[in-house]
Design a protein that fits this description.
The complex is a heterodimer of chains A (285) and B (301). Chain A has 285 residues and is an all-alpha fold. Helices cover 74% and strands 0% of the residues of chain A. Chain A has 13 helices and no strands. Chain A starts with 18 loop residues before the first helix and ends with a helix. Chain B is globular. In chain B, 75% of the residues lie in helices and 0% in strands. The longest helix of chain B is centred in the C-terminal third of the chain and has 41 residues. The two termini of chain B are 14 Å apart. Chain B has 14 helices and no strands. The chains are: A mainly alpha (285), B mainly alpha (301). Chains A and B meet through helix 1, helix 3, helix 4, helix 5 and helix 6 of A and helix 1, helix 2, helix 4, helix 5 and helix 6 of B.
């Protein structure tokens, strides 16, 4: 890998052409598509005084939506971390019939439009659905049109993140580590806990953070199954939509700014985790 | 250098490399408990929702199904979705290739910040994406009065849907190409330039053949998201039937009208698109891994 340029020059010398052209194009496109719209949110919010802003973003209904959005997203990311790790482990370590199909279908939530996932999960978990008839009819657990429905949708959309970040790391682990541990008398569980888990922890945390970040902003799959009862099963993106439909642009923007700041923060955390994961496994990216 | 495909050598027959050694193997009951747990979760959260789409779509029979996907409003939505993808995907492919060339083949200050900014659209809620464009191009937005004076419409019209789609699919191609091109280094391109190739020739004959599988992979994912985007598009489209209604929005409208059979019929087309995406993706991964194996094998010898 080439080193970063040092000293006074902004760019280090390269024989490869196209630097000015590609830099100009990249910056222009990025500015038009991403930066101007993001800045618009910040500027629009300045129409509010600080006190007004605070009042909008801490209104009880909005605060209830933060709790649901962030709580359900954390829980979904945790569930996905556990089962994502199991699935990655099973796909890397074992052979079983249909493994290739399972491996290919893991990415379904990336490819299936969220609205389709939303109506399909609602049909499954509704009182007369395939799963809902047992959960609600027999056990009395209400999933569709309740906060639990939000959790189910967020587990669905976040599922591939953990599997796909942990799987390559597991694949690359050399057998020598485990052989050494076994020859020193470690049990299989001790080997996993003290040898393998430290190796995959950065990737696991990255997958958790990616799954969480995706879940916090999710809209399409959730609104169908949530029932959208204010203060009960109303997620923060829906609060923004509701304010927009009432032409309360400033209010919508203020709540959006809170979410945006949080997303920026998560993005930095994820970047940090990814470089940690890259360093600790010696992958050069 | 460790090639990512090396581990797959022993996987085809009688167990993975881990199942062969004593030290890397669990007892059979642990193995089957883990497989059962993993597959149960997989079936519950992935297989059932997918199966349910087709079951609900075909519940009232083929007649209703075919009628639902061939009625004029559905056809209009399908057409609009294809048009949107046809505009948004090429825009992001061009951007992705250019940005990847910049980041992988040149060193400059602020590169890390630029890479982070390219990732940004992944972490912005789709609803906020829609809101942003309303703030910039809406009637009361920054360019609102100018747009009205010039009789241009972006929000609640097709250009707004294109912009929102471009935003949410912005990083897909670049994200796929940057690590790939970084790992391939610059030796081959530098050799071509030293031998007198122009920049364009270098890209076309040296870089492009090396990145074609990664590029195709990015295009497929970008396309799937472009056709399926819901949140961002729903804010800027206005959902005018027959005009600004994409397939996912059409699904929502039908569903909210309690026309479930029709909603799931249109949804099943999107599910088929997802399955096709996964099949092509698996094929591209296989071809890409094969090409990488050939390349690394060739270099070692």
């Amino acid at each position: 890998m080439a080193k970063r340029p040092k000293g006074q020059s902004f760019k280090s010398y390269s024989v490869l052409p196209g630097f000015n052209l590609t830099l100009g194009y990249t910056l222009a496109y990025l500015t038009i598509i991403v930066l101007i719209p993001v800045i618009a949110v910040v500027i629009k919010t300045t129409e509010l005084s600080l006190a007004e802003f605070w009042q909008v973003v801490t209104a009880p209904r909005t605060v209830a939506s933060y709790k649901l959005s962030f709580g359900a997203s954390l829980l979904a990311a945790a569930v996905n971390s556990v089962f994502g790790l199991i699935l990655a482990w099973v796909l890397v370590r074992y052979t079983f019939p249909g493994k290739k199909i399972v491996d290919a279908l893991i990415d379904l939530p990336f490819a299936l439009p969220t609205a389709v996932a939303g109506i399909s999960l609602t049909a499954l978990y509704a009182r007369n659905g395939w799963i809902g008839q047992y959960l609600e009819g027999v056990l009395g657990i209400k999933v569709a049109f309740a906060p639990a429905g939000v959790l189910v949708a967020l587990i669905f959309i976040g599922l591939p993140f953990v599997v796909r970040t942990v799987q390559p790391i597991l694949q690359d682990i050399e057998s020598e580590f485990e052989e050494a541990a076994a020859s020193l008398g470690a049990s299989r569980w001790q080997t996993f806990r003290h040898v393998l888990l430290p190796i995959i922890t950065p990737a696991l945390l990255t997958g958790f953070a990616l799954s969480f970040a995706r879940a916090v902003g999710e809209y399409g799959s959730v609104i169908f199954i949530a029932g959208n009862i204010p203060r009960v099963s109303e997620i923060t993106p829906l609060i923004i939509i509701t304010k927009l439909e009432q032409f309360d642009y400033v209010g919508a923007t203020a709540v959006a700014l809170v979410m945006l700041v949080f997303s920026f923060f998560l993005l930095l955390v994820i970047n940090g985790l990814q470089s940690w994961a890259a360093r600790s496994t010696g992958r050069t990216h | 250098m460790s090639s990512p495909t090396r581990a797959s050598h022993g996987t085809r027959f009688e167990g993975t490399r881990f199942e062969k050694g004593h030290a890397t193997r669990e007892s059979a009951w642990v193995k089957w408990i883990l497989i059962s747990l993993g597959l149960a979760f997989f079936a519950l959260f992935l297989v059932l929702p997918l199966a349910s789409v087709f079951y609900e779509a075909l519940r009232r029979g083929w007649g209703v199904y075919l009628a639902s996907i061939t009625e004029p409003m559905a056809l209009q939505a399908i057409k609009l979705t294809l048009i949107i993808a046809f505009i948004a995907v090429p825009l992001n492919v061009v951007f992705g290739v250019i940005a990847a060339w910049l980041i992988a083949k040149h060193d400059f200050r602020g590169k890390q910040i630029l890479t982070t900014l390219i990732d940004l659209p992944f972490s912005v809620s789709p609803v906020i994406v829609g809101l942003m464009y309303v703030l910039v191009f809406g009637v009361n937005g920054w360019f609102g009065s100018w747009l009205v004076e010039n009789n241009l419409k972006i929000i609640f019209a097709v250009p707004g849907i294109v912009l929102a789609t471009v935003f949410v699919t912005f990083p897909f191609v670049a994200r796929e190409l940057i690590p790939l091109m970084q790992s391939q280094g610059r030796d081959e391109e530098e050799a071509a330039v030293v031998l007198g190739a122009s920049g364009w020739q270098t890209f076309w004959y040296v870089t492009l053949p090396n990145i074609k599988w990664g590029l195709l992979y990015g295009v497929i994912l970008c396309n799937a998201r472009a056709m399926g985007e819901f949140g961002a598009v729903s804010v800027v489209s206005g959902k005018i039937r027959g005009q600004t209604n994409t397939m996912p929005l059409h699904v929502e409208i039908l569903y909210n009208e309690y026309n479930f059979a029709a909603a799931f019929s249109v949804a099943s087309l999107l599910a088929l698109l997802a399955i096709t995406t996964l099949i092509i993706k698996t094929w591209v991964e296989y071809r890409g891994a094969h090409a990488a194996r050939l390349a690394s094998g060739g270099r070692q010898e």
